[in-house]
């Protein structure tokens, strides 16, 4: 490795750049399946060696595919999980899991659609409407967008303020009538029902109100920022919301 570019030495970053480049080269559609295939063979191997049947609880069972652009993600629970809201707000906030559970919960049942093609019908999600958290923080007039960050340290997402205030956008605590497990982004993930599932950032830890949209992880790698199901990314799927 060239010592003039010490920042290029870290292998995790190098791997992310490699995957991202693949994604750009094929309009972003190749990248996720590459990760997915690795995970599926891992799951298949795990299932073969699992007399307890516990691997049946892994996400592949329900039609979901497991995705993470980070190679490892810390586990967070009721003791150490925090969700912060900051940026262009009057009252920056930090919520514990108990705080979020104490707020009014919304339940929605929608299809989940990944931009790579897989769809999971009629999936119940429960959590707190994002609009409620934004109102509690007091969004300033100069604000136009929201940026989401994750405790995997890598993934980011974004919405316009109008999109973020839709009633079908939530900070989800439960999916399929269970508390969100780690592999699905638990304890808390974003859920943007009308958009491709890449908008639904897993392991959500930060909500920052900003002036303008800053494209998220996959959006910097070729996916559409306005990710409406059936009306973006060159796809014609049935809308989900
Ligand atoms: N933090 C984080 N959130 C993420 C992703 C990711 O890699 N990291 N992948 C996205 C994509 S492309 C999809 S399809 C869904 C997958 O969610 P699942 O693993 O629960 O099926 O999460 C989205 N949110
Ligand atoms: Mo996806």
Automatic annotation (TrEMBL):
Keywords: Membrane, Transmembrane, Transmembrane helix
Source organism superkingdom: Bacteria
Domain Oxidoreductase molybdopterin-binding: 72-218
Annotated transmembrane regions: 17-35
Pfam families registered for this protein in UniProt: Oxidored_molyb
Family matches, as InterPro entries: OxRdtase_Mopterin-bd_dom, OxRdtase_Mopterin-bd_sf, TAT_signal
Protein's name in the database: Oxidoreductase molybdopterin binding protein
Organism: Streptomyces davaonensis (strain DSM 101723 / JCM 4913 / KCC S-0913 / 768)
